[in-house]
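Progress narrative, work stream C.
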Amino acid sequence: MPGPADTMTVLIVDDEPAIQTLVAYNFTRAGFVAETEADGLRAYERIREEPNKYRIVILDVMLPGLDGMEVCRRLRQDRIYVPIILLTARDEEIDRILGLEIGADDYVTKPFSPRELVARAKAVLRRVEAPPEQASPRDELVIGEVRMDLARHEVWVRGRRINLTPKEYELLQYFMSNPDRVLTRDQLLDRIWGYTVATDTRMVDVHVSHLREKIEADPKSPVYLRTVRGVGYKFSSAGPDGD
């Protein structure tokens, strides 16, 4: 878990001084210790040098040195999982999906309410720092050929270890903790991303599609992650032996 339990340090990475000041002020009022950075590469190096220092990072997409997307991508490649909220002036769905796919925890477009940003940050922290809901006594979830080792944070499919993004891991754990239960897109958004916005349900579809590519023998004919048309998805406990 990033940072000591009694310290909430937020790193605000934005090259606009006015935004730095406004966001830092609101986070300080909310009880955080706020630090700022204007250059993407320097921000990346600061986080990499002290990966446990920051409780959460507010990261602008358009930055000098290294853009926010690349900062996020490199941190996840380095297996540094500090929570990240991306800020951007762009509001294209593909940008939101790309940011979340490379490992960001949330995505806020400019202009934004500083209070809402703080609230979103707290929601992210509540979610990522909460204990697993339904971990088994053996710290393991097994359905068919899919095995999640919760203690080691590993996923094995048909005897081979697979790599998942943080969001894919959370999503798979939630599905496997609720086998055969139909989960709506709104439920998944609320549980995995910490909020429900109707226009963001496409993110769920994208993540499910990526999960299928990694766990299904034939992603076009899934036997585990099944679509319930007009409702959402379910993880079938029947696996490859089902209908």
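Work stream C, second folded protein:
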Amino acid sequence: MKKFSTGILLSLLLFVSCVSDDDFSIPDTVDPDPEAGVHVQDFMWKAMNFWYFWQADVENLSDTKFPDTEEGSRAYTEFLASESDPGKFFDNQLLYSEDRFSFYSDDYVTLTQSLSGISKSNGLIFGLVRIKNSSDIFGYVQYIVPGSDASEKDIERGDIFIGVDGTSLTDTNYVSLLFGDSDSYTLNMADIIDGQLVANDKEVSLVKEVGLQENPILLDEIIEIGGAKVGYLVYTGFTDEFDEELNKVFGRFKSGGVTDLVLDLRYNPGGSVNTAILLSSMIYGTNTKEVFLKARYNDKYQKILEDNDTDLRRFFADKTGDGTQINTLNLSKVYILTTSGTASASELVINGLTPYIDVVQIGETTRGKNEFSTTMVDDRDNNYLYSPDRTGKINDNNKWAIQPLLGRNENADGFSDFTSGLVPDIEMEEDLTNLGILGDLNEPLLARALDEITGNSAKRQFTTAMPARTLTTSKMFAPLKDNMYVKDLPVVW
């Protein structure tokens, strides 16, 4: 079941092309029996019928399935009532079999609040790994959010935990133990000894806080090594509220004479594509005539846009959303660190930059998330598109929202086929026995990137004693998850 009542959003900002009020609106379709109590399902079907990327591939969403007749209305009502739970209706009746990312929420208010990365969290960011030939699972700390409850406790990157509140983690209980309704839990810690997990007596109690906002700029510094000045940025989420701060980081890199850049996206599941464009412009350049991406929608919406000569391309930027001149390094090569948790807008940066500069990807194959989505609510007059300026227009009797995939982004070369992930140029897994300290010159993945930059002829050989092959991560249960969303669609109305 793809329900995330706390909200899961990642931001992709697109431009709006305005033609006239009558040029674009979702066509009238058959209505259900108003007494049937299926208004939520009705909203879901109508929004998906028009906007969904795979609308033509889902029989239940066919334009001809329910004719606008009395018989069609009866059949439509029966179809909507086939699932009394709107969430099950969405999952079971409307989704394409290959869709891994569309989801719903029963509370659009909480969902949309996550646009700014605000959530209830204890600040512990971790991965979960299955023990070989076992149903048991253990966790390892990837990093701690500064200013969080976890930042004040005796726990740090690389620490291992095997239980919660005295119960061992398994593949059947980890969701309820770590991501359930409780705002607090106690982790039972362990050590790795000779490749084995050994419980110790250490316990760490953590409390989730309401309104914790994570600054995605976890670490930025200039490393001077081998005659090079290397900018190192650990960036954990494309949250557009921090675009100005991100630009200031590149201002410091530029004034500091940075000649090379290591962009650490290992723990970045994605976010605002507008921010992805800005970050890519800070790396490569600000020529606003060079194409960064082209969006592709379903055939129905694509035709409307093309008939109205709507340009679906997005270009590199020379200013932030606030109008600040972008600080660009004008690089011809960038080194990007990735894991299987690197997704969405992170992958878009890699793919978008590839036609222009040499992108050296170091680490693991990425997640393979190349679609974008938007938030839809029961606001028929706005074609079901959520707008913060129209919350008073949303049906008072329907708080549900859906976040369907709308399309895919191609780079300037027309490439978008990376559903299996982007494969690294230099494969290297994180080692649970030597996770290292972020920013330390001996942290294995950073060290490998620095060796490439300096041309170290005697490159260190990094062996991985215990690979961190994650089953999932805490970010997959956080509000932002790994979805890109459209804040402002290119519409003609």
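The mean pLDDT is 90. No further action is required on this item.
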